[in-house]
Amino acid sequence: MTAGPPIDDIHFDDAPNVDSVPGPNTRALLEKQEDIDSSAVAYPNDIPIAFEEGKGATVRDADGNTYIDMFAGIGVLNVGHSNPYVLEAVHEQADKFVHTVDFPTEARLELIEKLDEIAPAGMQGNNRVVFGGPTGSDAVEASIKLAKYNTGGDGLIAFRGAYHGATTGAMSVTGNKKFKGHYTPLLSDVVHAPYPYPFRQDKSPQEAVDHALEEVQAIVEDPYGGLANPAGIIVEPIQGEGGIVTPPKGFLQGLRDIADENDIVLIFDEIQSGLGRSGEWWASDWEGVTPDVMTSAKALGGVGFPLSATMYKEELDTWGSGDHAGTYRGHVVGMRAGTRAIEYIQEHDLLAHARDLGEYIQGRLQEAATQTDRLGQIRGKGLFIGAEFVDSDGKPDGDLVDDIQQYCFEHGVLVWTAGRHGNILRFLPPLVLTHDLAEAALDIVVDGIEHAVDDA
Ligand code: PMP
């Protein structure tokens, strides 16, 4: 059986089609939200939109405006909103059984087997998967626990620019000081090493890799390196929130070598970069490096069901029954959805599609960069792309990116930002985005860049 309709058939036909936004229904919902919802609400502060319906790589707001979605709920909707092949299984499963804690179900075992099929090479047939809670942060907590439990250590090496989540352990390894500043002390014994970021560090790719690896090595091996009992290294193979910072080749392998030489656990956080986002199943596949532990969430729930998982090498499966617990340790509807989403990616060859379309999008941005000195760098892999903007002195320019984002919104394209200074325009569209939709979106993005640069 072919897995559902082709990608050409699963979007609203009229996107983009936008009147003046936000329209009256949207405004009413935003106002009501402000009255009754938490002050912690964040996303509508950037784009004042209220969603009504989504299809594929397109969404409608509460006033019937249709947009091309280039952020996919921050990398969640890899097979698109309401993917019909996924929804078919969701409806079937929801009618039968929704919550089963961690009792065996076909849905659960099928997903574990599917994840094994697409696991990084060195983990295939040699892994276990733990489902604890539904969020990525929970998967990160599980990975930290595994590293500590298996090594007896407690120190962690993380990276500047990293984002790993909102729970205490995950915040500890996150780089963003503003995000965690009010909640210290967090986990002690966490050290943040530089992540290779040649553009910002003013280094060649090789120098940036060497510098980062020397620092990590010193933290672990120098007798005066400071961190007494390291348990593991946690790293995003491509930093997402940090600005689609894409490390040059050699970095992940270097970390692998340091972890091996020192018997510590190497954790790859693939929550944003994984499940096809980068044009490979896992961003680390680009370098062919296998971690000891790998976190996954976001796109794992198929069409947005909250589901996370931590995959680890079988030899680390030393902990006992209930050692990573949670009421929602595997939402069976989400599990069905996850398996179906992986099948949809496989059957429609969406990894190759993501690579091709990613090249097209980067090409369009490169073309735009020839017209202005404000577009400092375009980077990323597959459909995980960042465009870094600078001011006339080469300093990060977040205001310019806000203006571009606003222009895109008003013209029917939803695109997000990232980076320490909010100066990276972040593209992470559903992998089902068609070439036509990408072209329409990029026409608007490029106009937005010209417009914002002219106004600056
Ligand atoms: N790790 C990475 C790399 C992420 O991008 C995120 C979410 N943006 C998380 C962890 C945390 O996931 P969640 O928000 O589901 O807890």
Could you walk me through the main structural features you see in this protein, from its secondary elements to its overall organization?
- The termini are far apart.
- The mean pLDDT is 97.
- The protein is built from 15 helices and 15 strands.
- It is 38% helix and 15% strand.
- With 456 residues, the protein is an alpha/beta fold.
- 4'-deoxy-4'-aminopyridoxal-5'-phosphate binds next to helix 6.
Q: What is the arithmetic mean of pLDDT?
A: 97
Number of contiguous helices: 15
Secondary-structure element order, as H and E? HHEEEHHHEHEHHEHHEHEEEHHEEHEEEH
Structure class: alpha/beta
Gyration radius over CA: 21 Å
Which percent bin holds the helix content? 25-40%
For the secondary structure, the number of strands is 15
Low-confidence stretches: none
Main beta sheet: 7 strands, mixed
Shape: globular
Provide the β-strand percentage band: 5-15%
Bound heterogens, unique:
4'-deoxy-4'-aminopyridoxal-5'-phosphate
**Major sheet: arrangement of strands:** 4-10-9-8-7-5-6
Distance between the termini: 53 Å
List descriptors.
38% helix, single chain, binds 4'-deoxy-4'-aminopyridoxal-5'-phosphate, globular, four-stranded mixed sheet
Chart the SSEs and their pairings.
Layout: H1 24-36, H2 43-46, E1 51-55, E2 58-61, E3 66-69, H3 72-75, H4 84-96, H5 106-118, E4 127-130, H6 136-151, E5 155-159, H7 168-173, H8 177-180, E6 190-193, H9 198-201, H10 205-221, E7 230-235, H11 251-261, E8 265-269, E9 293-296, E10 309-313, H12 332-347, H13 350-369, E11 375-381, E12 384-389, H14 398-410, E13 413-414, E14 416-418, E15 424-427, H15 435-455
Parallel strand pairs: 3-13, 5-6, 5-7, 7-8, 8-9
Antiparallel strand pairs: 1-2, 2-3, 4-10, 9-10, 11-12, 12-15, 14-15
The structure holds 4'-deoxy-4'-aminopyridoxal-5'-phosphate.
Residues 74, 135-137, 140, 163-166, 236, 240-241, 269, 271-272, 297 line the site of 4'-deoxy-4'-aminopyridoxal-5'-phosphate (PMP).
